[in-house]
Amino acid sequence: MDSLIGRYWPFVAICAAAALFIVRLIIKEQLTLQRSLSYLLLLALLGAAALFPNVDAWLATRMGFDLVSNWFFALSIGGLSLLHLSSLVSLSRAELRTIELTQQLGILQERVDRLGTHGERP
Amino acid sequence: MRRALIVIPSFNEARALPGLLAELHRVATTLPQQLELLVIDDSSSDETGEVALAHGARCIRLGSNLGIGGAVQTGLRVALAEGFDCAVQVDGDGQHLPSDLGPLLAALEGPDAPDLVVGSRFLRATGWQSSSARRLGKRWLSFVLNTFCDVRVTDPTSGFRAFGPRALQLFSRSFPYDFPEPESLSMARMAGLRHLEVPVEMRARATGQSSIGGLVPLYYMTKVTLAVLLSRVRNARRLRA
Prior knowledge:
Chain A has helices spanning 2-7, 9-27, 33-51, 53-62, 68-118. By secondary structure, chain A is mainly alpha-helical.
C-alpha cells in the first residue's frame, strides 16, 4: 500500500491545495462554510481515493468497472454533477429572493417618497 | 366608483412615456372607473422615472433590472396591497392604445365577469399585426396552450391585460419572470381562473427596440413551450395538494 500512496501523492497534494484554497476563501468570507462543505467533502473523498488505491480497486471491481481509472472518473464526474445541481438550486432560490426583495424595496421606496413629497400616509 | 391601477412596465422609455401618459390621462376622464397610473421603472439608464413623475404618474424604481415579469408583478402586488378592484397592464413602449382600456375594463364588470381579460390584436385583425415569423410563433404557442392546457387564445403573447381580484391574488403570489404572457395564461387556467379575449388594436412601438431579436426567438419559443407544459404539471400538483 505504501508504494501506491507514493505513486499517487501528487493527486493528494492537489486535493489538499484545493481544500486549503477553499478554506482560505471561507476565512476571507468570500464563501460560506455551509455552501462549501459539500465541495470539501468531495475533495476529501477524492484525496482518500488517491491515498488508498487498494480500496478503490476493490470498489471498482464491485461496481463492475474493468479499469480503476474509469471508476475514478465516474466518481469525480458524479460528484461534480451533484455539486453543480446543488449550486443550481441555491442560485435559483437566491434569484427568486433577489427579485422579491427588489420589488419590496421599490414599493417601500415609492411610499417613502410619496410621504416626503405629498405628506401622504404610506 | 371602482378603482383600477394602470401598471406601466418601462425600461428606457423616457421618450415614449410623455405621449402615452398624456393619452392615458385623457382616456381616464372618459371612463367610469377611477384610474391611477403607476410606472414601474425597471432600472432604466435614462430618465424614465423622472419623466413618469413629471407627467403625473406614480413611479416605482426597481433597484435592478427584473425583466417584464418582475416589473408587472410589482404593480400587481401594489394593486392588491392598496385594495384596487383591478389592474391593467399597459406597456410603456406605446404599443397598446389607451383608447382600448374601456373595453378591457368593461369586460371585468358584472356578476359573470372573467378573472383575466386579454386584449387580442387578431380578433379584429386591424392595426399593427407584427411580422409573419412572429405570427407563426404565436400560432404555435396558441396550439400548445390549446392542446395541453385547454386555453383557447388567439394572441398568447399579448401583454395588454386586465386583472380581476382573483388574478391579482394569484399573480401577486407567483408570476413568471421571463417571457411571462403565455405561461401566465396556463397558470390562470390551472388555478381555475376564467379568461376572456377582447379585440384591441396595437401599434408599432413608439421608440426603442424589442428585446426579442437575434437568436432570442429560438430561446423564447423553446423556453416558453417548456414553461407552459411544466406549469400545467406544477399547478395540477399544487391544486391536488
